[in-house]
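Exercise: predict the structure of this protein bound to 4'-deoxy-4'-aminopyridoxal-5'-phosphate.
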Amino acid sequence: MLTQREGIAEIQAAAARVDRTLLMIPGPTAITAEVLAAGARPVLSHSDPRMRSFVAESLARLRTLFDAPSSQPIIAAGSGTLAMEIGLANLIEPGDRVLILETGVFGGRFRTISERNGAELRVVTSPLGESIDPDQARKAIEDFRPKVVTMTHVDTSSGVRVDVAALSRLARERDALVVVDAVCSIGGEEFHGDAWGVDVALTSSQKAIGAPPGLAIVTVGPRARAARDNRRSPFPGYFTDFKNWLPVMESYEGGAPGYFGTPAVTLLATLHTALEELAAEPMPARVARHACIAGAFKAGVAALGLENVADPDANANTLTVVRNPAGVGDELVDAVRAEGVTIARAIHPELRRASFRVGHMGICGPAEILTTLGALERALHRLGESVDFGVGLGAAQRVMSAKGRAEARP
Ligand code: PMP
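Solution:
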């Protein structure tokens, strides 16, 4: 019989034998051996007392993570897109007005979900790399009087972060419901669901939370719940219906199991461990860590003469979207992989084959940042670009050391 420690060591050794490539895409992200080991257990019944406490504790931790004491979190098997559909569709009746604040391709998913639920739409799209202009948002809210305003906290196609607090305030001034896609932000960016007036926030397990992909997470605030309860028309969704999920989650939190669809018990065990690890790092420190490594990576690529797509005041902590050198396409991503680091291609239509994306969230730290910048320097060299080796690394080192010194001061 192996102890848990020995079991983890064995899993780490096995993982090392299989693949030493560093995963630096903006989700799914690398996970700790402890999270991996949490899934390497016998399947539990969804009403097993251990599973009951996993779910109940995870729900409580999610409420803290979203800083939304008034909301009820839902965890369902599925990806972030399912969380988007659950979170938004319940609020829309045919003819309702939905305003989409779009900072990249993921706003387009809210657009489609709204259209399919019969909404009348207005879209405010920011220029590539920029956040939403508050004046434009205010004007759209005044003119259009939407029932729901959606925004993407961090858009993974552009690397742009929006000011959720400011935009929610504008929506709330006109009584609109606020739906926030926090798929690429929660766990790495500051978030205060209740204080910021967010009615629905959603994410998935595989990014800054540090669990494997496969769980959709939605927090439902009281106004969102009332909007579902007071619908005039029947809600056409079934798996996506708040009313099927909220009682199950409340039941688990009350200490009794619930059932609507069989929970992904193995993934729930991994999420439980990931949230436990997350809770061990105070949120301000976690956000500061993300800000520090993001600053280091962004400084590193800039020192190599590459351009960050997102404006400095809108540049996310969780990922960086970088323009390739002129004339270099996706072979750069392949060359970085050949140097041992997996990064992602562009998905924004304006950036395809001219840019790459690096995720630095979850368990990512200085070692991963330096390894990635080192691989990038070698990859650029391999492709014939002139690279002064160490320039990107040096810039990152300076940011991380300056940050360390600042924090060490009394
Ligand atoms: N929103 C954002 C901001 C995302 O980054 C993603 C995934 N990259 C999604 C939604 C969709 O999530 P999923 O791929 O898990 O369905």
